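Annual report, structural modelling task.

Input specification for the guanosine-5'-monophosphate complex:
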Amino acid sequence: MSDCLFCKIIAGDIPSSKVYEDEQIFVFKDISPKAAVHLLVIPKIHIVSLDNLTPEHQTLITHMMLKLPELARSQGLDDGFRTIINTGPGGGQEVGHLHMHILGGKGMPGFN
Ligand code: 5GP
Ligand code: ZN
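The model returned the following structure:
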């Protein structure tokens, strides 16, 4: 956990472009955007991936999901957005702290 990039971003040890924060989640702009809007939504507690969820995370995950449309709208994505969650090496996950991508606007990529 102490070596986790996203935990360091939450702590402010590594700078980021923060978009939203509350007691449970932190939201910031992806450093290498794949579309005009590219946000990362992360839990403040360190969870590696969807593979590491337990029933005690139910409220947190629901909170993250319910926030997505509001966050997308706050970035001007009024007619929809794409959500991606990569899990494990086989799913293309590069950072081992659970994150939901929000993508939209010009240049939004396909699935591959
Ligand atoms: P993954 O491939 O794990 O689903 O996505 C990780 C994402 O984190 C990538 O889109 C990558 O651009 C982004 N990322 C990696 N390092 C940093 C960083 O230091 N700051 C920010 N804001 N994004 C990062
Ligand atoms: Zn972490």
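The chain has two helices and five strands.
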